[in-house]
Amino acid sequence: MTSEQPPAPGSAPVPPSSAVYGGNAAAATAVCLVRGVIAAGLGLGALAVLVIAAWISSPYPDSGPGAALRVAAALWLLAHGVELVRPGALSGGPAPVGVVPLLLTALPVWLVYRTARDALDPGDSRARPAAAGVVCAVTLGYLVVAAGAAAYAAQGAPAADPVSAAVRVPLVVVLAAAGGAWSASGRPLGPLPAWLPGRVRRAPARSRTLTAVRAATGALAVLLAGGAVVVAVALGWHAGAVRESLLGLAGDWSGRAAVLALAVALLPNAAVWGAAYGLGPGFALGTGAVVTPLAVRGAPAVPDFPLLAAVPDAAAPGGWLTWSAVAVPVVAGLVVAWRTAGDAAPPLARRDEAWSVRETALAALSAAALCAGATAALSAAAGGPLGVGRLAEFGPVWWHTGAAALAWTAALGVPGALALRAWRVRDRAGAAPPPPEPPAAPPAAPHEDQGFDPYDALPAAWEEPAALNPPDGDSSPTPPLPESGAPPPNPRVSARPAFEDERRSGATGGLGAEPPVSGRGGIGERPAGHPPRA
User: Fold this and answer.
1) Structural Rg of the chain based on CA atoms
2) Strand partners, 297
């Protein structure tokens, strides 16, 4: 074993990123490359297992295992947003397939995110590598597998579009790896690049920005949850049509299981479509056909699929059930107002503790803008073409949906936040008076340690005679001590009542006198035979 040698005096210090995974940066880069390859292999292998299982269970397989593996590679690329091309469509030419199942996208994104985060957090005494190096190494290793999968899937049906694969796969991987590195670094909000303006670089550190992010997150969650509720109600309302579509697409249980799995993978897309429906613009079902809560405009080109069987009838106008979907953006706007006012003016806050009207309005407006941007991005990811001609447009129009989200959340969030702020900082004229001050504590009784004499509490009749208590200023000399050296008698003791001395002596002859004895000797004489008292 070799021990680490301290750096030589005057030499440059070794950066922490070079002392990892064997002691140098090359080893760290190699490990991160391998981690990226493993992440890509896990995602591709999981989909390959599912496709091979469906192919084995199919009673009428029309191709071999090679074609099934090419389908698995194409689906894995589709999960990264790559557009697939179906050759030999009904129109005679190739037909693009651009609707990406968002639940399928969650698998590669989560794998890349965890890989980058774990690479930056070794979990032992080893130093952490540089975040930028980890992101680049993990992305490069992942793209090596993606390039091989794209080349392998190019010979199958459907095939991956090479231009789309070259643009979208690196973008998704870099964003996911950067998110993992950011999470491993403690989710910092800065510093931003120095070339940005000063106000932009300081914006993430402001409390107003954090409040806007939290309010926008809550509003987006309400929109997606509300969209899922809209879809669930529509599926329940058209349960018969949904069942007929599922049974008609496949005659055996393996085919129905595959259709059902695809429908589950498209449920997040359906939630985004439901949110766009509640916001008002709705979604497109083919070129020139739009489904909104008010009505269905145009002639929808609805393929036979269980989720699309829940679309409202084109001939029937909108009713109270479709109009009730407007409650989704209303609740989202109220969430923006509530969460913004919760930070701008907490309950029972004073006016000097609350934010100003301008800051509160800007925070609510920023939250509305962030929610609108996220809604537009999800709408763009949830839709896409399913072919050519009338099937070229499917899903929400992203800028329509984003503009509607901005209008709803800003129109309800800004006035609502200002109203809540004004209510919480109002002057409370009828407030309860302050509680009265507690009464002063009574003086403490004297304690024996403070010189308390129990004879001070005697009745006035037991006080000392005036002769024994000379008045102030009396200069009579103190009686001299007796020859035996005993102290003078205490005036207080000598002034006690006579019956107390009698009780103590047992006679009236004074303190310590013997009781009288009658005899020939007279008073004070002792009888014969009795020796004198010592």
Assistant:
1) 47
2) 290
